[in-house]
Amino acid sequence: MSGPVQTSPATTMISFARGAPSTDIVDVEGLKQAAVTAFDTDPAGMTGYGTAVGYVPLRRWIAEKHGVPVEHVLVTNGSMQADAFLFDELATPGAAVITERPTYDRTLLGLRNRGADVHLVTLEEDGIAVEEVAALLEGGLRPTLAHVIPNFQNPAGYTLSLAKRERLLELAREHGFVLFEDDPYVDIRFSGEPLPRMLELDGGAASEHVVYASSFSKTVCPGIRVGYLVGPPALIKKIQVRATNTYIAPNMVAQGTVYAYLQGERFPAALERVKQALAERVGLLDQALRAHLPQATFRRPEGGYFLWVSLPEGEGHDVARITTEAAARGVAIVPGTDFLLEGGENSFRLAYSAVQPGDVDEGVRRLAEAIEAARAQA
Amino acid sequence: MSGPVQTSPATTMISFARGAPSTDIVDVEGLKQAAVTAFDTDPAGMTGYGTAVGYVPLRRWIAEKHGVPVEHVLVTNGSMQADAFLFDELATPGAAVITERPTYDRTLLGLRNRGADVHLVTLEEDGIAVEEVAALLEGGLRPTLAHVIPNFQNPAGYTLSLAKRERLLELAREHGFVLFEDDPYVDIRFSGEPLPRMLELDGGAASEHVVYASSFSKTVCPGIRVGYLVGPPALIKKIQVRATNTYIAPNMVAQGTVYAYLQGERFPAALERVKQALAERVGLLDQALRAHLPQATFRRPEGGYFLWVSLPEGEGHDVARITTEAAARGVAIVPGTDFLLEGGENSFRLAYSAVQPGDVDEGVRRLAEAIEAARAQA
Predict the structure, then answer these.
(1) Predicted confidence (pLDDT) at residue B57 exceeds the cutoff of 80
(2) Where does the Aminotransferase class I/classII large domain start and stop, copy by copy (chains A, B) (predicted)?
(3) Distance from C-alpha of B56 to C-alpha of B259, rounded to nearest angstrom
(4) How far apart are CA B5 and CA B147, in angstroms?
(5) On the CB side of B219, how many CA atoms lie within 13 Å of its CA?
(6) Which residue of B39, B42, B226, B255 to mutate against A (max A Cβ within 10 Å)?
């Protein structure tokens, strides 16, 4: 610890830390109705064990959404569990894996815990630096897996361009690795135009190189813990065996409720409300950053939960100290260092998903104060 | 395949195979009401991420039930997921582990898949042969874990006696291994007197040698996928880290619904109904076995889902062939060989939990025919 820190216990905490929606933008009433509908219409399916493929009607819905036969789909207890199964299969000890730099901290941890040989590749504003990937491959690297968050990346908020999606696929085909398209945020785009999934670009049902993951955490709610994988049937079958051996079957009550919710009338309007709320929050955050932190650089995202802020290099910023000073002033952030194996001391992630609009400006004002206080100690 | 098999496609399948309740003994209406109550009373807790410890009020309820502080409890997506986390921690490659012979097939598979050195110890009608365990320990075996299903064991239906519970604990203390008390069936006892848990015998909150697992699959329903571990806080904390890294948090919607259900008025009567139905089914099964398979030996269980049947040795019974012949006659069983690393050719498991009372006698009649037909081929 470096010197005394001002504490203001009376201040209400404003959190830019957690990538989760505030409860006011979750359609609790709709979910409750969906649960009732699901128990009424399919009592045996909701209460029985089911199998590791997931709740059968939801699996079919997902297969139709992505234009693939059901054998390509496995529905899991949240998409992180899906990631974990895929990593168990492909990110074995010593296996080379490519990820973005920065990337989701739990992805890095999951890969490192399995003893994978992780290669981080620069993330640019239009996505992973594909020529850096190509150079690694030309240099002899033979990855089993490349992990990419194509839309509104966590932590940066950036989106992978169409040209780069195509180039990545080309590399995956040429060098025979699995491209893991980890896409939980895709359906909460609030501006700009959607881009095709790499799964589709690779032929959808004919795709041999893409494993696609997504989730209902962002469109329905996180506590329901429903995610899924779409990929080549042989690989999905192997992961299904892992899932059976781990938990027999995922949660049928939750998956049946999600299915009933998706079939119901409230879902489209509820999703629209989430997107509007996120658009409003990111607009306010953009404004507040320009007002209180004019020295910061960032790219305003077109969807998702996150915005990545960098302070000028060479000014001796120490994000650990900034985080501490911010906490003392009642504002929570996640330091950039959490999303990298090295570096990130002048960066941090701001999640706007859970911040009330009226708190955004005050939160950034406090953060600017914290940055000044941290710098004064340097 | 051995010779032609009679098929009767018009016959309705009677299944003694799956350890699951029939839907008619699940309180679907009560669960539906509980889901509504849970969404109404705790919308933020139900829909938010939560943490890997599980839904906080349910964790507290479980801690109170077992008389331990909450730090001893981890609520998971079903108890098999809890087993998997514990095995990841203690059944590492080469680690010696003791199990019962026969035991739950998925337990054996989970241990073998992890490369553990599995030692199966005879299961007697009053539970695992404790002096055989003692002999292994005296012979120098140093297990990290001994897995025991104390009540209405799967597949045998047997219950561990009090004297053996005490002796096992003594051995665990003396040799410093974890006694894994895997107890999903305890609350569906329909006759006889309950015995104290080894967790309690080891001092409950002060226990250092017991990790206890149970589930709501048998008392509420399987599709809700809620199980839990109770154990020493340091070990529970390690498993909590694994759970966080695997799925962030288990299902809050399911766990919140279970909690509301346990608090509601319908639970005690619903549990009573399950027990009465199981008692009726086991009574009919006992009767049918005596009538149609007088040569078979079995012990009528005092609770749970399963009954283990052995045919006389030395008569050349082949349970694989019996299973095929039974299937051809519209009756499903699980062969004894599934629950052992070797042997079991003259045994099979009958699950009575999912069989309608009116089908029990006919199912056993068909099974007796199948046994005759299989023997005729030998």
Answers:
(1) yes
(2) 13-367
(3) 10
(4) 39
(5) 25
(6) B39
How far apart are the C-alpha atoms of A174 and B136, rounded to whole Å? Answer: 55
CB-CB contact of A130 with A167 (8 Å): yes
User: Chain A residue closest to B88 (CA)?
Assistant: A246
Assign a CATH topology to domain B14-26+268-377.
Answer: Aspartate Aminotransferase, domain 1 (3.90.1150)
**What distance in Å separates the CA atoms of residue B231 and residue A353, rounded to the nearest whole number?**
36
**Cβ–Cβ gap A35/B253 under 8 Å:** yes
Beta strands in A114-238 (DSSP E): 117-124, 127-128, 145-148, 178-182, 210-215, 227-230
Write out residues in chain A with pLDDT < 70, as ranges: 1-10
In whole angstroms, what is the distance from residue B179 CA to residue B209 CA? 6
Residue A203 CB-density burial (10 A; 0-12 exposed, 13-18 middle, 19+ buried): middle
Alpha-carbon gap, residue A317 to A248, rounded angstroms = 49
Buried b (16+ CB within 10 A) or exposed e, A313-331: eeeebbbebbbbbbbbbbb
Strands A145-148 and A96-101: parallel
Taking the Cβ of residue B249 and every Cβ of chain A, the question of whether any pair is shorter than 8 Å is answered with yes
The correct answer on CATH 3.40.640.10 for the domain covering A28-263 is yes
Sort out which chain A residues have CB atoms less than 8 A from B84's CB and list them.
Answer: 245-247
| Closest-CA distance of chain B to residue A227, Å | 10
Pick the residue of B49, B55, B258 with the most A CBs within 10 A to test the interface with A by mutation. B49
Two structure tokens written together for A140: 């002899």
Structure-token pair, residue B155:
């597949």
> Cβ distance A257 to A224 under 8 Å?
yes
Residue B7's pLDDT is 46
pLDDT tens, B127-178?
Answer: 999 999 999 999 999 999 999 999 999 999 999 999 999 999 999 999 999 9
Residues B318-336 have a mean pLDDT of 97
At the top level of CATH, which class does the domain B30-263 belong to? alpha beta
Is beta strand A117-124 parallel, antiparallel or unpaired with respect to B14-15?
Answer: unpaired
Sequence ranges of the domains in chain B: 14-26+268-377, 30-263
Q: Taking the CA atoms of A143, A145, A149 and A155 in sequence, report the sign of the dihedral they define.
A: negative
* Cα–Cα distances in angstroms (integers) from residue B356 to residues A117, A377, B11, in the given order: 54, 75, 15
Question: Inter-chain contact A253–B35, Cβ cutoff 8 Å?
Answer: yes
pLDDT of residue B18: 86
